[in-house]
Amino acid sequence: MTKQDFLAKAYRRTVSNALGDAAKRIGDPDLINLSIGDPDFITPQEIIDSAFKCATEGHTNYTKPNGDPELIDAIAVFLREEYRSDVKPSEIMVTVGACHAMYVALCAILDEGDEVLVPDPYFTPYKDQVTMARGVFVSVPTDISTGFQLDFETLENLVTSKTKAILVNSPNNPTGAVYGRDVLEKLGEFALKHDLIVLSDEVYEALSYGQKHVSVLEIPTLRDRSIVFGSFSKSYAMTGWRIGYAVAPDYVISTMVQINESICFSAPSVSQRAALSALHKRNIVQPKLVHAFEERMNYGYQRIRSIQGLDVIAPKGGIYLFADIRKSNLGSALFAQRLADEKKVLVLPGNVFGAYGEGYIRIAVTVGLDRLAIAFDRIEEFIQKEAEM
Predict the structure, then answer these.
(1) Who's near 107: CB < 8 A, 6+ residues apart?
(2) 155 or 329: which carries more pLDDT confidence?
(3) pLDDT at position 6, please?
């Protein structure tokens, strides 16, 4: 028996993973890492202190499978205050990050062969998650010319008798696109017409610039046919605590809980207490983080727009700038590789986010303005050198 024979056929891969390749480069002191979306912020001290206190008071055992009741109640209050959505505790599940929530949700709703429509470019794990849950991933083209917005004529052409769901992400990773209320209302009509489930990844909801985030929970036609995913990772600088949540009809949540009991039973108890503290203190700790990200995004946008040969949409949310590099005549992978090798700036090539990400690079604004300035100086030098060749 060979080494490959030990592995399931689905995982006998010889191709490398862009995220893994990026991680291998980390450690070079001259490298500026704008690849993986793990911000340089430390979790606010108030949240750390509260979690430590809770641990010493005995919050170190399993919680209920659906989550700490106090945290679930706090999430319900948050959703009511932010989005005027009356979500019941039975419609909420706390998970080990939003990716965990999405995978368990897909397992709960998909039968083998069910199709899921996903706007492309997309967050890389979506495709694997749909496939692992026995579904069929269907790419939906989007384009910078429309700000990477949904095109409903394209969606209509891709719907089949096997289409079960559509997965959307706003603010979007990697493109930075944001769906307004008008788009979500059209999405509601589309989902109702074709009897589709809407999976809505809203992990960047707090990081909206110039306008308040609109949740699918606010759209009447979507409220009862949606599964919404939230996270504490970026908006509270809590990536390592691994806490997210799902909001869905109670019968979906109960099925997700049942599935998850065979995976990890419950999310970490101390992390859940940290999330509870984050919600209680959100009006104190969150504005500073949001302001810092907005400053970085605006700075990056201005720098990209000032470099001849690059383009990008105006940032409306999230922590990523999806720069159009097509005028360089370098493919995404080669551009990213040479930028790292020659200028010590690490970004992700757009093609790892789907076929329609080719010709772009994703820049994560996860370092301070001083380091961003150096990074963009290096990017500009790289572009100018290419233009002279």
Answers:
(1) 133, 256, 259
(2) 155
(3) 85
Strands 244-247 and 320-324: unpaired
Burial of 139 (0-12, 13-18, 19+ CB in 10 A): middle
Mean pLDDT over all residues of the chain? 94
The correct answer on CATH 3.40.640.10 for the domain covering 61-282 is: yes
Cα–Cα nearest to 36, from 20, 48, 47: 20
What is the CB neighbour count within 10 angstroms for residue 368?
Answer: 13
Paired residues of 361 in beta bridges: 323, 349
Torsion of CA 18, 22, 23, 26, to 10 degrees: 180
Closest by Cα among 231, 365, 238 to 304: 365
The owner of tokens 């610039």 is: 209
3-state helix, strand, coil in the chain (%, to 5): 50, 15, 35
> Tokens for 366?
């996860």
Parse the chain into domains and list their residue ranges. 4-43+284-388, 61-282
Q: Are 209 and 317 in contact (CB under 8 A)?
A: yes
Helices (H) and strands (E) in the chain, counts: 13, 12
CATH number of 4-43+284-388: 3.90.1150.10
Single-letter code of the amino acid located at 78:
F
Question: What predicted TM-score, i.e. pTM, was given to this entire model?
Answer: 0.94
- Residue 135 backbone dihedrals phi, psi, to 5 degrees: -90, 175
148: number of Cβ within 10 Å: 22
Q: Are 173 and 124 in contact (CB under 8 A)?
A: no
Residue 287 neighbours by CB distance under 10 Å: 11
pLDDT in tens, 103-154: 999 999 999 999 999 999 999 999 999 999 999 999 999 999 999 999 999 9
